[in-house]
Design goal:
Elements: H1 14-17, H2 22-42, H3 46-54, H4 60-67, H5 71-84, H6 86-104, H7 112-125, H8 130-148, H9 174-186, H10 197-210, H11 227-239, H12 250-280, H13 286-289, H14 298-305, H15 312-341, H16 358-376, H17 379-384, H18 390-414
Helix pairs in contact: 2-3, 2-5, 2-6, 3-4, 4-5, 6-7, 6-8, 7-8, 9-10, 9-11, 10-12
Length: about 425
């Protein structure tokens, strides 16, 4: 039997990868790199870390418990994970700025030359990643060319409203809204994971405000690209004390800026499921869909915003499922090979299963099964079964019960 294919668990399935923007790929890479670093620091499988984080527990203590470690160990491991992604996070910020600029270039009245220069300078900051830089240059060139040809970029909608330059649209509730967001941000200082409760709540709050603002396409600013959305988030983080203040020592100022960057990244990560699930709901909400000119379905909205229609958690789950499939295929291939080779050089004597009498062949097959069960029932092997998915555990239970019946047939045959 041919060897099972090797699937890198951190490579997105090609069908998904083709739809990713550069920032989406980097964002996913950040989460995966952090997960691996945390798992390595704790000495546990990365799947266990991912499951604990994506479960969106109500406290850090619950998240740590789900990973089977103390809160202190979990936080120390998370610090190691954050350090591992610092460079990627810096690149992500640059990429997001470039993508936002390319969205503004086709807008009516845009200073294309100035925006193109600004974006080009930003691309230079990530030039050491040649593949990423090439992709961003192509994205920028496409936006500029669309203006020259006076044709909109694929998936864009002609603006019907002016882009929000501030968040004055909130009116009298603006001040109270900022305070509410700041209170949520202030609780995020020690939160672990991309979907920690505080980060999720803060992201929901900011997303709600974004929907009241307008982007350069005249639609709700779901991606937070408008100056209004950016200034609102800044106001919230400032009010939460995540900005240097007069009288701060250099160390205090640096700590505040570091915490601000951490909270900002947590917002971006938590925003993925919030936005995806909200857009999906538009298929059952004709009134809500009317806010997106030219869009007749949720799929149209995803296309207009150039967003993936899967959450990061769904993407990662699909990739880990592929990894498990590959592992199972490898185990099945190994088992088949063992059956084919029989007890050669082992308990069953010499030769393959095709040689000897029928009784000798049956004896060698039994010896092969015995070796497999002996290896499986070792303590470490049994403990590892707990890390499998609930679905796989159910499959193993069904197979094991069937094997018990088959072993009873063997016992009856030798009585």
């Amino acid at each position: 039997m041919a060897a099972a294919p090797t699937i890198d668990p951190f490579t997105p399935p090609s069908a998904l990868e083709a739809t990713f923007s550069a920032s989406e790929r980097l964002g996913l890479a950040i989460e995966e790199t952090r997960d691996k670093a945390v798992a390595e620091a704790l000495g546990i499988p990365v799947e266990k870390v991912v499951a604990a984080i994506n479960a969106n527990h109500t406290s850090d203590t619950a998240t740590a418990k789900a990973m089977g470690v103390t809160l202190a160990k979990a936080r120390k491991a998370w610090e190691a994970g954050s350090a591992a992604v610092a460079e990627l996070e810096a690149s992500l910020k640059v990429v997001q700025e470039i993508e936002a600029i390319t969205e503004r270039i086709p807008a009516e009245g845009a200073d294309v030359e100035a925006l193109e220069l600004e974006a080009s300078n930003l691309v230079a900051q990530v030039a050491k990643d040649e593949e990423l830089a090439t992709e961003l240059r192509a994205l920028l060139a496409a936006a500029v060319q669309a203006v020259k040809e006076k044709t909109p970029l694929t998936g864009t909608i002609v603006a019907k409203k002016e882009e929000s330059t501030d968040f004055s649209v909130l009116g009298e509730k603006a001040e109270e809204s900022v305070k509410e967001g700041a209170a949520l941000a202030a609780t995020l200082g020690t939160a672990m994971g991309s979907l920690a409760t505080a980060a999720y709540g803060l992201a929901q709050h900011i997303y709600g405000v974004r929907k009241e603002l307008t982007n350069g396409k005249g639609m709700p600013d779901l991606k937070g690209d408008s100056p209004g959305a950016q200034s609102y988030k800044s106001a919230v983080l400032d009010a939460a004390g995540l900005a240097p203040a007069e009288g701060d020592t250099p160390a205090e100022a640096a700590e505040k800026l570091n915490n601000r960057a951490r909270v900002d990244q947590a917002i971006k990560e938590a925003m993925s499921p919030i936005r995806v699930l909200d857009i999906r709901g538009l298929d059952d909400d004709p009134e809500g869909l009317a806010a997106y000119p030219g869009c007749k379905s949720a799929a149209d909205v995803f296309k207009a915003y150039k967003l993936n229609d899967k959450t990061n958690a769904e993407i990662r789950a699909e990739k880990y499922a592929l990894k498990k499939q590959a592992e199972r295929a490898a185990l099945e291939a190994a088992a088949a090979k063992s059956d084919d080779e029989g007890g050669e050089g082992g308990e069953g004597g010499e030769g393959g299963e095709e040689s000897g009498t029928e009784a000798e062949k049956a004896d060698r097959k039994f010896a092969s099964v015995k070796r497999g069960l002996k290896a499986l029932t070792k303590e470490d092997a049994l403990d590892s079964l707990d890390e499998l998915t609930a679905e796989r555990k159910k499959e193993i239970k069904t197979d094991a019960e069937a094997m018990i019946k088959q072993l009873k047939q063997v016992i009856a045959a030798v009585l």
